[in-house]
Each structure stands twice: as C-alpha cells, then as structure tokens.
Amino acid sequence: MVFSPSLLLGQDAENYYTLKRVIEIAKKQSPEALSAQHRFRSSYWQYRTYLAAYRPQLKMSLTIPNYSKSISSIQQDDGSFSFRSSNYTRWSGGLSLSQKIGPTGGEVFVNSNIDRMDLYDNPTLTSYMTTPVNIGFSQPLFSYNSYKWEKRIEPLKYKEAKQKYLEEMEQVSITAINYFFNVLQAQIRYDIDKVNLANNDTLYKIAQGRYNIGTIAENELLQMELRYLNSKSSLRESELELNNRVFYLKSYLRLPEWEEIKLIPPINVLNIEVDPRKAKEEALKNRSDILSFDRKLLEAQSSVSRAKSDGRFSASLYAVYGLTQSAEDIEDAYKEPSEQQQVMVGISIPIIDWGLAKGKIKMAESQQELVKTSVEQERIDFNQEVYLKVMKFNIQNSQLHIASKSDTVAQKRYEVTKQRYIIGKIGITELNIAQTEKDNSKMGYVAALHNFWQQYYQVRKLTLFDFKDNREIFVDPEYLLE
User: Fold this and answer.
1) Same domain, 219 and 182
2) Distance separating alpha carbons of residues 180 and 444, to the nearest angstrom
3) How would you class 464 by CB atoms within 10 Å of its CB: exposed for 0-12, middle for 13-18, buried for 19 or more?
4) Residues 141, 315: contact at Cβ < 8 Å?
5) Are residues 173 and 252 in the same domain?
6) Which uninterrupted H or E stretch holds 398?
7) Is the pLDDT of residue 9 over 50?
C-alpha cells in the first residue's frame, strides 16, 4: 500500500496529526472526555460524602441574640390564667460532638450549652443556665440499618464509577478514531481525484490528437471528455466533503477553526492476536458491568430488608446523662451542677394494616427475583459479546493484509492498463474499469485500517486491558480531581 507523499510529509509538522495524537487530544479536551471527568468527580464526592457521614461530626450553634417583647397568657399557681407582658433578650451557644455507630445504626453524642436571659423589668435581671456536659445515645431496635448495606454498596458504586470512567475514555478513543478516518477517507479521496483529474486531462489531450489523425472514433473522444469533466466535478465535491469532515473533527477536538490540519495514515499496525480466554478473564476482573451486577443484587437485597423491617415490630431507645446549673452570675452557673437524666423507649407495633406491609415485602421480593433474572441474562450476553469482539478483531490483520495486497495489485493494473491505452492496445472501457478498481481498492484499504483500530479499541473497552503493553488500563483519581 502506497500513500501520496502529501499525506506523509509537510513543511509544518504542527499541522500533521497521527492517530495517536488525535486520540490523546480527544482524551484531554473533547466534550465527551470532559463530561466523563465531571461524572467521575460527582461519583467521587458522593463516595466522600458517604465516608464523612460516619465520621465524628462537631457542630456549633449560636443565637446572638433572640429579642422578644410580647403579651402572653401565663398560668398562675392556683391554676388560673392571666395576661402578662414580657420583654427579654436571650443569648445561647453550644457545641456538640456526635458519632454514628454503623454496625448498630445508632448514634452517641456529647454536647455542652450555655444560655443567658436578660429580662428588661425594673430593674433588669440577668440569669444564666449552663449544661457543662451531656452524654447520650439513641439506638433504633429491630429496624432497617442503612449503614450495613451502604458499607457494602457504596464502595462498589465508587469502584464502578472509576471503571465506568475508563470505559468512557475508551469510547472517546473510538469516537476519535471514527472522526480521524472520516477525514482520512475524505483526504485520500481528494488526493485520488486530483491524480485522476491530472491523468484524465493527459489522456483527453492524447485522445484529441488521435481523433485529429483519425485513429479513434468521435464516440471514444466524447467518452474521454466526459471522464475529464466528471473528474473535475468529483474533485470539487471531494474538496467540499473534506472541508466538512475536517470541521467536525476540529469541533470534536476543540481546535481553532483557522488551524490547518493534515492526517498521517497509521500504516504501522499492531501484530497481535488476543486470546479469548485472557480477554474474558480481564473483562470479568475489570469491567464496570461486573461490579454493576453485584451492586444491583445488593440493592435488591437491601430493598427486601427495608420492606421487612418497616412492616414489623420496631422500637427505639434514647438515653442521656448530664450536668446542669443556673445562676445570676456566669461563674456560679458552673458551680456544683445538678444531675439530669432521661431515658425513653419508644415502641411501634403494627396491629391492622390490611396487608400493606406484606404487599411491600412481596413487591420487593418480586423485584429482587426480576433483578436476578436480568443479571443472569446480562452475564451471558456480556461473555458472548467479549468472545465475538475478540474473534472479530483477530481476523482484522488478515483482512488488512488482503486489502493492502489488493490495493497494490489494483494500482499496478491501472498503470499497465493506462500505458496500454496510450499505445492503443485497449479501449476506454477497460481503462474505466481499471481506474474504478484502483480507487475502490485504495478506499477499501483505508476502510480496513479503520476497522482494525476501531475493533482494537472495542476490545480495550470491553476488557479494560492494553494487550499491546500487556497491562491493565487504570486511572489515578487524584489526577481527575485537579
């Protein structure tokens, strides 16, 4: 296979793009790549939020101040009510430290508070109430424990997001390959049409000379003129198509509109054959689909657990122990504090719900079975897809070799046919056939190159494994969060 020198060399190397360079640019700045990066960031912060929820939480609360002037009813010692005016300012502040207890679904907490009240009577009265320390816990009993399931599901979701990002980047490569070869095909078609126009111009002039000396009929001259005119029209169309496809490539790569680009064909292909068993092994280890299967099953189990917990006997336990004191002076408000204790047990027992709880449980169990069936079928389809894609890629080298050989033969045949036409050994029909076969074979080789690289990256996407360098494709989360 021989490409035009204009495709391989240039005065300004900055304007010449290899397939590798196009893929690298697409992974850095294409709209698809940027969208994939933002989706991963969202998943990353979702995972960080999950982790943060089960770490100690320190909070401060302040009211500075709360002023009130009103008239309200006040109950007297004898049980009667009277209306009294109130005019006061209240200041308060507090610190609280809490920690969720994941395995049990409960929470422990420690807090400290201080309140100040300024009553604007005659005279003004100021008093303080302090709670130096409160220690307590709350614990749901026999209820759904979200932590138990989140601990299993959230890490899976985050790992799935990382693998999904890698797959999306491989898809970016595939899209970039498609844009690259769309332009390359138009570029080569344009070069072919330029060469054909030059050849047809020469042959038309030769035909005119032969017609003038009476060695060919007018019909053959007219056919040659028509070939010449068609080749001029074809060149204009191919130039327009080339400009159109270059525009879409530059748009995808987010390159300046004014930048001139030329593509260098990737004539050096990989001489590798992928082992289907190795591909399946890597796919089962690396693909987000496999993690997705496990996550869906866990989520279905979680839904069943929630339905069963919500529809049965439940209870909650709340207990707190602390110290408190009040005084008109802030120092005295911390002296000899009194104990305060509170214990509360709440119980909820469904008596008659007309089958509401049972219905929710049955729906959750039915959905779980549906998920199981769906996941089983998706596993089968997944394994089949990996096998078929690998086998399809493995025949690309031979297909490419055949296409290259066909192009070389067609090119030589055309040159021989053109020379035979020039010396008058054959007619215009055979020349037309030879030129068509030459053009089709060249375009066929480019199409075979396109298929090769597209199928190779399809295999990479399905397995997240680089068979060229024999390593897993990975991502550094810190790089994506910059």
Assistant:
1) yes
2) 16
3) buried
4) yes
5) yes
6) helix 396-422
7) no
Instruction: Report the distance separating Cα 391 and Cα 164, nearest Å.
Output: 24
Domain that holds residue 125: 57-101+106-143+314-349
Q: Are 110 and 134 in contact (CB under 8 A)?
A: yes
Tokens 């899976």 locate to 156
- For 399, residues 6+ apart whose C-beta sits below 8 A from its C-beta are 448, 451, 452
My answer on whether 192 and 136 are in the same domain is no
At CB < 8 A and 24+ separation, what contacts does 116-124 make?
116/90, 116/91, 116/92, 116/330, 117/88, 117/89, 117/90, 118/88, 118/89, 118/90, 118/91, 119/86, 119/87, 119/88, 120/87, 120/88, 120/89, 121/87
- CATH number of the domain at 13, please: 1.20.1600.10
The predicted-structure confidence for 414-427, as pLDDT tens digits, reads as follows: 889 888 878 878 87
Q: What angle do CA 120, 121, 127 make, to 5 degrees?
A: 65
271 and 374 inside one domain = yes
Total number of domains constituting the chain: 2
Predicted confidence (pLDDT) per residue in 208-250, tens digit: 888 888 887 888 889 888 989 999 999 999 999 999 999 999 9
Domain assignment present for residue 354? The answer is no
